[in-house]
């Protein structure tokens, strides 16, 4: 009856458990880093009371949120109101399941079959990431609608418009990389980036697709609702946007989803453009360290950008998305296709 | 029932129940959400059929792109309940006619499906992966089905132009 339990299955379950918890911890760490970096940019010390250098501040925040009262507006659509934060968080976690972060390992001969360092290896991983990102919109839109409040609704509507607009450029940038790699599997895309040009420059797609990388990151910032594109929650105009009416843990879930989405976009960008776990100096089985370094660099860029650039105006955002980013993405795609055919 | 059939019945039940919910209740927002659930369950069925590409496309195109537009429109209209149509109170014979027509339609569908017979299924992993691969689908789409493909794109273009013409402000 229980003969299906073998070391490989156990190792896989442990891996899933670890990834889930590391994602949660990374969100906590991101909250801390964001506040620290923000503080240094604004020339003040930032959180420094709870734990060393304020490292335990996010945990204190979570405990505070847990013990708060969970309020619900009387006119809210109860079911949708409760489901919306769950959709947001679940999609944020789900998207990470197809991202590979290391080579195969047998844990030093412990396992009979090699274990791939990712939750699941699907042959259409790139599309899965895209599909789950498009599902993530629902969490925000439904939160905005079900709260039955004007600020929430405006936040939800804005986010729907923004995400639909930027998803196109996002998808077109993805398609260009898929054409170069000739595969939709993230693992194959990463392994295709192995090697060096002239012994120095790594064969990362960021060097073949510099415009695609910029488009991907810009659209990624818009997809994750981060400054300078954080319109769904523009504080000065919309109180807090789509999560105005949320409190306690349901608010924390939205917060968690936002940070995990950042991690996911950075991880996907690392796999697509920065060679994933590939890197010099370290042996193959320690490639996940390179992966973490690259993801961290992108995450720092995210935070840096938020505290450097002011928010755009809404019409500027739409104009930029449709009249600049989308045409550039289309030209980039066609040029890539032509070059791939020309150079075989 | 075998264990490996369990996911099929689960997804099938979700799809049927959600679809019934789409037409069965009066809140348009909930209808849209239930339709998304139904599309998601269909995608699950595609995965069970070893067609991950179709499953993901189903999610991206239908559950993602199209339903977001539906949701957007329903939100903009802010209709909390469906309006009763002007002819909502009908004579009893109208309802009887509806029942007869739907039974006939059901019979027709059953008859059409019975003519199909059992499709032959390959369980060989090599064949399955070659059929479900994106390259095979792409080649088939641009060679065998290229006419249908091009006609569809023209159809979509026409409907887009139509929408722009209708939405245009009169000069």
What does this structure look like?
The complex is a heterodimer of chains A (344) and B (171). Chain A is built from 12 helices and 2 strands, in the order ααααααββαααααα. By secondary structure, chain A is an all-alpha fold. Chain A has one domain. Chain A has a two-stranded antiparallel ribbon. In chain A, strand 1 (196-197) and strand 2 (201-202) form a beta hairpin. In chain A, helix 5 packs parallel to helix 12 (314-342). Chain B folds into 2 domains: 5-82 and 90-132, Four Helix Bundle (Hemerythrin (Met), subunit A); 133-171. Helices cover 75% and strands 0% of the residues of chain B. Chain B has 7 helices and no strands. Chain B has helices at 6-24, 28-48, 52-77, 92-114, 125-132, 134-142, 146-167. The interface between A and B is medium-sized, with 26 and 21 residues.
What is the CA-based Rg of chain A, rounded? 21 Å
Q: Kindly state the mean pLDDT of chain A as a whole number?
A: 82
By CATH reckoning, the class of the largest domain in chain B would read Mainly Alpha
First CA to last CA of chain B: what distance?
Answer: 66 Å
Q: What is the strand arrangement across the widest sheet of chain A?
A: 1-2
* Category by helix and strand content of chain B: mainly alpha
Keywords:
heterodimer; A: 344 residues; mainly alpha; 12 helices; B: 171 residues; Four Helix Bundle (Hemerythrin (Met), subunit A)
Kindly summarize this structure in a few lines.
With 344 residues, chain A is an all-alpha fold. Chain A has helices at 7-41, 57-66, 78-95, 125-146, 150-181, 186-191, 205-208, 210-223, 235-238, 248-273, 287-306, 314-342, and strands spanning 196-197, 201-202. Helices cover 64% and strands 1% of the residues of chain A.
List the helices and strands and how they pair.
The complex is a heterodimer of chains A (344) and B (171).
Chain A: H1 7-41, H2 57-66, H3 78-95, H4 125-146, H5 150-181, H6 186-191, E1 196-197, E2 201-202, H7 205-208, H8 210-223, H9 235-238, H10 248-273, H11 287-306, H12 314-342
Antiparallel strand pairs in A: 1-2
Helix pairs in contact in A: 1-10, 1-11, 2-10, 3-4, 3-10, 4-5, 5-8, 5-12, 8-10, 8-12, 10-11
Chain B: H1 6-24, H2 28-48, H3 52-77, H4 92-114, H5 125-132, H6 134-142, H7 146-167
Helix pairs in contact in B: 1-2, 2-3
């Amino acid at each position: 009856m229980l003969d299906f339990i073998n070391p490989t299955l156990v190792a896989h379950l442990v891996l899933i458990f670890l990834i889930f918890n590391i994602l949660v911890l990374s969100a906590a760490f991101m909250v801390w880093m964001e506040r620290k970096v923000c503080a240094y940019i604004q020339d003040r010390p930032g959180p420094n009371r709870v734990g060393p250098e304020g490292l335990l501040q996010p945990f204190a925040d979570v405990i505070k949120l847990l013990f708060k009262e969970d309020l619900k507006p009387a006119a809210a659509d109860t079911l949708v109101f409760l489901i919306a934060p769950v959709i947001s968080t679940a999609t944020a976690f789900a998207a990470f399941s197809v991202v590979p972060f290391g080579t195969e390992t047998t844990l030093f001969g412990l396992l009979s079959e090699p274990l791939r360092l990712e939750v699941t290896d699907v042959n259409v991983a790139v599309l899965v990431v895209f599909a789950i990102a498009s599902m993530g919109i629902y969490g925000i839109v439904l939160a905005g609608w079900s709260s039955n409040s004007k600020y929430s609704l405006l936040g939800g509507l804005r986010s729907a418009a923004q995400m639909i607009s930027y998803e196109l450029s996002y998808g077109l940038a993805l398609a260009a990389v898929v054409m170069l790699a000739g595969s939709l599997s993230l693992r194959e895309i990463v392994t295709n980036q192995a090697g060096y040009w002239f012994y120095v420059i790594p064969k990362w797609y960021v060097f073949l697709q510099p415009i695609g990388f910029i488009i991907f990151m810009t659209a990624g910032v818009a997809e994750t609702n981060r400054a300078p594109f954080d319109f769904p929650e523009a504080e000065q105009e919309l109180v807090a946007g789509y999560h105005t009416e949320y409190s306690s843990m349901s608010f924390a879930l939205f917060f968690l989803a936002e940070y995990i989405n950042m991690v996911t976009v950075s991880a996907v960008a690392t796999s697509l453009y920065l060679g994933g776990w590939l890197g010099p100096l370290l042996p193959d089985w320690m490639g996940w360290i390179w992966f973490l370094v690259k993801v961290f660099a992108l995450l720092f860029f995210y935070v840096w950008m938020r505290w450097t650039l002011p928010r755009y105006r809404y019409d500027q955002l739409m104009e930029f998305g449709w009249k600049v980013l989308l045409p550039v993405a289309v030209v980039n795609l066609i040029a890539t296709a032509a070059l791939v055919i020309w150079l075989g | 029932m075998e264990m490996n059939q369990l996911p099929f019945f689960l997804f099938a039940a979700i799809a049927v129940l959600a679809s019934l919910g789409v037409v069965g209740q009066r809140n348009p927002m909930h209808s849209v959400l239930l339709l998304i659930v139904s599309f998601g369950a269909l995608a699950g069925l595609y995965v069970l059929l070893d067609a991950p590409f179709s499953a993901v496309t189903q999610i991206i195109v239908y559950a993602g792109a199209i339903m977001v537009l539906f949701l957007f429109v329903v939100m903009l209209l802010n209709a909390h309940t469906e309006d009763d149509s002007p002819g909502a109170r009908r004579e009893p014979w109208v309802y009887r006619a509806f029942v007869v027509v739907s039974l006939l339609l059901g019979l027709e569908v059953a008859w059409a499906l019975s003519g199909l017979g059992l499709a032959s299924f390959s369980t060989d992993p090599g064949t399955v992966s070659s059929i479900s691969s994106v390259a095979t689908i792409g080649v088939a789409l641009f060679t065998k089905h290229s006419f249908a493909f091009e006609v569809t794109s023209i159809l979509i273009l026409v409907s887009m132009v139509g929408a722009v013409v209708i939405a245009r402000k009169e000069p």
